[in-house]
Amino acid sequence: MAYTYELSGPTPTLPAGTLRNPTPRTSDNFGFAVGISGAPYYMAAVGAPFDGTTAFQKGAAYTFGLDTGEPFLGTMSLLPASPVGQGKNLTVSFAGWQDENPPLSYTVLIDDVVVSPFGSSASRMIIGPTAEGTHTLKGWITDSSGNRTELTQNFTVIVTPEDWRFQYFGTTENAGNAADLADPDGDGNNNQLEYVAGTVPVDRESRFRARVEPVLGQPQWKRLIFSPRLAGRTYVVKACEDMQQAEFSILTITMMSDNGDERTVTDLIATSPMKLYVVEITMP
Ligand SMILES: [Ca+2]
Ligand SMILES: [Ca+2]
Ligand SMILES: [Ca+2]
Prior knowledge:
The protein has helices at about 160-170, 190-195, and strands spanning about 1-5, 15-20, 35, 45-50, 60-65, 75-80, 90-95, 105-110, 115-120, 125, 135-140, 150-155, 210-215, 220-225, 235-240, 250, 255-260, 260-265, 275-280.
């Protein structure tokens, strides 16, 4: 027999694979010469000058497919695409995977937990996570020698307006207390704002708050303080100095700091006698 080695170092000691003469004979000198081709289809040719089994008193060369390669070229897709609602049915599909050593098997993991086990089906129905925010989808594509390719993509679970209404009002309809423009807890934030801000629409203590403060010793500065600032949402502060035009532009000359879920944006050019600030909140 002949042994193959991974030449990651100058003196490898453990063979990566074994090439056996399928018809061994004493002193056939199998392995006298070995040739190996490169990626992606690893092949080896092994000579046996005194083989004598393929023809009387003739040598032979044997070819081997060496499966050291991982599956390649394919894709993994998620349907529906990110962002997805909470606990929704999702389909993960694998397509276009190639390997010199099929058949291939697939495994699906979410947040490093197997949610669809090792098997031959390239299309998997899974139930998505319920926790809002970013999650990791991993696919393992495995050839029949155990070589594995791992693909990773992030996806986001969002609370849809319908899920949100159902959670707090028992209905998915944009009507009554659940209507976007209603303010059933009387906190001055309508439901649409509470949904986007991530506050509770049936608790008047839970609402989006913003205030402007002077900065001691810095008469040209103003501090805008708002909360809650939640992970996954983006907050852009805009300002308007001309009340007639009411055109808001993004505040660029600022300092920013976070303390818990409270964000402070300091306007370093708050010199006009009147300045109106807005915070634009964007959900994932
Ligand atoms: Ca392979
Ligand atoms: Ca409210
Ligand atoms: Ca509220």
